[in-house]
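stage 2 :: seqdesign
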């Protein structure tokens, strides 16, 4: 009996040692609303006049350069809480004017040091803001890019255009992956328009899975709705409880972060909203207590916070430090906070 117990203890010790010796790769995927990243030149056909030197923001070269430097600082630091020397593998962006501002952005020293590249397709938005993707080519390989248009469903909207769904397919951790970068219709429009966006993105997600059943799909963006709003919970079918996620659903890790923890990414009249989200298909989940990381799997999410992203004085103390507020240039960052989700794969 003693010999059996001794043998069992030795086997357990060896097992724990093997587990302890396992090594993992971690990948960060982020999203950050750039809040009006405009250059100082007019784009033909776009309503960008406020962001010209003679416009309401008196947007000049000095302000533009400071904006680039500030945004690059945040983007370079995203993901470094977990990956201090690497940062994010890819970051979705919204509210960027054109390829010119992205070229200037990735040339900033903080991003150039990691050789960040970008994906962008000029969209039809009348205000001139688009979505984009920054990526580290050592960690994320781009294969194909499409801009899927947002389709209005009401005859009265037949002449309107807005931001589409920037869809990037590629490889990460040697697996097929797709990232759909979104900026859904604003709260100036009724919920109906964001519900349409949720339904359309769900169709895009399903089409990706039909074409490549193994592909892992992430929908990232500023949804202009909270995780518990109809557009997200019903139309996109993004569930907040991992165990409730069915094969045709998505998982939304931000649901409980807002509703149970009271955390958000932007404030309105003193209340936190969580419009900036990263949701995922169920093939990225370890459900029912599983800990199988032989394939790329979801680990955790965070709202990226730094003291410098908040106002420290005045009536808006504690709110996000914007570039401009109340007509005053603050040399700030964005009205939104960034978000990051982390994914893990065991090294073979």
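stage 2 :: out
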């Amino acid at each position: 009996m003693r010999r059996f117990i001794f043998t069992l203890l030795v086997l357990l010790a060896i097992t724990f040692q093997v587990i302890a010796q396992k090594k993992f790769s971690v990948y960060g995927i982020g999203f950050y609303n750039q809040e009006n990243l405009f250059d100082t030149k007019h784009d033909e056909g776009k309503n960008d006049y406020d962001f010209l030197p003679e416009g309401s923001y008196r947007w000049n070269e000095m302000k533009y350069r400071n904006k680039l430097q500030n945004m690059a600082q945040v983007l370079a630091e995203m993901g470094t809480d977990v990956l201090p020397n690497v940062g994010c593998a890819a970051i979705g962006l919204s509210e960027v004017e054109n390829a010119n501002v992205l070229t200037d952005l990735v040339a900033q020293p903080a991003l150039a040091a990691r050789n960040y590249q970008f994906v962008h397709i000029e969209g039809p938005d009348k205000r001139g803001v688009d979505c984009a993707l920054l990526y580290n080519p050592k960690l994320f390989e781009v294969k194909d890019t499409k801009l899927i248009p947002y389709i209005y469903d009401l005859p009265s909207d037949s002449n309107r255009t807005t931001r589409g769904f920037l869809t990037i397919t590629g490889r990460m951790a040697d697996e097929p992956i797709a990232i759909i970068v979104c900026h859904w219709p604003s709260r100036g429009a009724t919920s109906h328009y964001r519900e349409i966006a949720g339904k359309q993105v769900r169709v895009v997600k399903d089409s990706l899975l039909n074409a490549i059943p193994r592909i892992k799909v992430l929908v990232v963006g500023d949804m202009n709705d909270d995780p518990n709003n109809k557009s997200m919970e019903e139309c996109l079918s993004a569930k907040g409880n991992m165990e409730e996620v069915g094969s045709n659903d998505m998982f939304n890790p931000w649901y409980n972060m807002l509703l149970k923890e009271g955390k958000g990414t932007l404030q309105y009249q003193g209340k936190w909203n969580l419009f900036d989200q990263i949701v995922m298909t169920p093939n990225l989940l370890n459900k029912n207590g599983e800990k199988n990381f032989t394939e790329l799997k979801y680990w955790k999410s965070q709202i990226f916070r730094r003291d410098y992203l908040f106002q420290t004085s005045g009536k808006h103390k504690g709110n996000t430090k914007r570039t401009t507020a109340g007509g005053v240039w603050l040399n700030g960052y964005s009205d939104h906070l960034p978000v990051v989700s982390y994914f893990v794969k065991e090294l073979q």
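stage 3 :: structure notes
- Confidence is low (pLDDT under 50) at residues 1-19.
- The helical segments are 2-20, 61-77, 99-106, 109-112, 191-211, 230-235, 255-259.
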